[in-house]
Design brief:
The protein is an alpha+beta fold. The protein is 43% helix and 19% strand.
Length: 86
């Protein structure tokens, strides 16, 4: 049985995936990303994905283009990020 914190985080990830998948052909061309959680404890692949998104340490911000590749990267580490359209 999962804790409330885990369930809440899963809901946030599901909402993000749903929101990003609805944006096919949307007018927003960039996303502002903020790293909320540390990469410590993550897999090597997650750390590499964060580096590709331009995020180095907790609290760092990055702006990425709205492409299918970037959406996939965002989904891979969505539990660590805050995403804003802009």
């Amino acid at each position: 049985m999962a804790s409330r914190k885990v369930l809440k985080r899963q809901q946030v990830v599901e909402d993000l995936v749903r929101r990003l998948s609805q944006k096919q052909g949307a007018t927003a061309t960039t996303y502002h990303l903020t790293l909320l959680e540390s990469e410590i404890g993550g897999t090597v692949r997650q750390r590499a994905t964060l580096r590709c998104l331009g995020l180095r340490r907790r609290g760092s911000r990055s702006m990425v283009a709205d492409t299918p590749q970037m959406r996939g990267r965002i989904r891979a580490v969505a539990h660590l990020l805050a995403v804003e359209e802009g």
